[in-house]
Each structure stands twice: as C-alpha cells, then as structure tokens.
Description:
Elements lengths: L8 H7 L3 E2 L9 H5 L5 E5 L5 H9 L4 E6 L2 H13 L5 E5 L14 E7 L17 H10 E11 L2 H14 L2 E6 L15 H8 L5 E6 L2
Parallel strand pairs: 1-4, 2-3, 2-5, 3-4, 5-6
Antiparallel strand pairs: 6-8, 7-8
Helix pairs in contact: 1-4
The site of S-adenosylmethionine (SAM) has 20 residues, from strand 3 and helix 7.
Amino acid sequence: MRVRFRSDAKDRLEKNSFVFIDPVENKGNWNNIFKNSNLIHLEIGTGKGQFIFNLAKKNPNINFIGLETQPTILSYLLDKIEGENVSNLRLILADANNVVNYFAEGEISKLYLNFSDPWPKTRHEKRRLTFKKFLKQYEYILNGAKLIAQKTDNMELFEYSLWSYSNYGFKINNISLDLTNSKYEKENLHTEYEDKFIKKGNNIYYVEVYKN
Length: 212
Ligand SMILES: C[S@@+](CC[C@H](N)C(=O)[O-])C[C@H]1O[C@@H](n2cnc3c(N)ncnc32)[C@H](O)[C@@H]1O
C-alpha cells in the first residue's frame, strides 16, 4: 500500500497523549494509563489502524493498543483518533522486536497479527512476526489462554506460522482457509490490507491459537 511520506508525523505522534514513543517506561503500568482494570488487547503492525480503531469502538469494555514501527503510517491512525475520541485505544510507535520490554508478564489478554510482512526469503525468517523468538516474547506478555489471532493472504507465511506455532506448543482454536466466506466473517472487522486483498480476489487465511 503506497503511503505518502509525512514530514510532521513523528512530531504529531510525540505531542499526542494517546501515543507512546518510549513504551519501556510503561511496562506493567498500562491499566493505570487506561484508568481501569479491563483486559488489554494488542495489535502488532497496526498499519493505518482501521481494524483496531473499529474494534475499540465496538468493544468499549476492552482496552486496545496498536503497535506500529512507521511514524507516517501510524499518523493515519492518529487522524482517526483525533477525529473521534476513543478512550480505550492507545498507540505505540516502536518495534515489536523488543515487545517484552513494553509489557509485563501476562499484561496482555489477546494479540492480533494482521497481514504481517511475509519476509519470504529464508535468510529473513527471523524477521517474521511468527518466528520463535517473537512467539517466546508473546508467551511472556500474554495471560490466560495466550490467544493469538492472525490473518494473512500469504499462504507461505500462513503455513510457516502454523508450523512455528505448533513447534512452540501453541494449539489451534479456530482456523479458516477462506475467512471472507466462513462462519467467522460475521464478527470479522477488516483491515486496510484485507479490503485491498479481497478486492483482488485473494483468499484470506485465518487462525487463532492458544497455549496452556
Ligand atoms: C503489510 S502491513 C499491514 C498493516 C495492517 N495490519 C493491515 O492489515 O492493513 C504490515 C505493517 O506492520 C508493520 N511492522 C512490520 N514489522 C513490524 C515490527 N517489527 N514492529 C512493529 N510494526 C511492524 C509495518 O510497518 C506495516 O505497517
């Protein structure tokens, strides 16, 4: 998805109290930031944020955090939250490589990975958000059933992720090889990439895994 560079994006993000640029400071403190004890759901690689923005509006009793590494891209989610106050949504501008430094053990109740970059070359396996190094970090920050919900149109990433989850001891809760035409679609909120890929006629793969 082409995004026009915004030179003021970082500055705008830094000035907004709903955005956290140094999330390490808030490890273990996110419920105080939301000023309630509701569960916290996290999306990694949130992009322009259509999914998490709509999910937060639909679920006012859950707290949501969108984590994204690109300032310009995250600034599009900032546009949305500036236009409409969604008190249960916060944004983090940071890299998921260090996610255990941003959240305490068991601080997150569910993780969403939507259309993550596939990194198809074998030498880039370590960058895939379902590589074992990431799963280890997710296991630490997640509580309860340690739910991870993933959507992608990339079959290779999907197959790799299923293999990686299974190797790490995650089990499948729900799965669809055609989310758009599945029973899960009724509750499914689309991301920007999802809309684009559906328009192209691509199948959307979906899996929800857990670990106990
Ligand atoms: C293909 S886009 C998908 C965006 C959105 N989830 C959607 O479905 O429309 C992947 C996004 O993940 C972000 N991303 C990739 N690696 C990341 C990382 N290590 N930490 C945080 N964000 C990351 C990218 O900057 C990009 O915005």
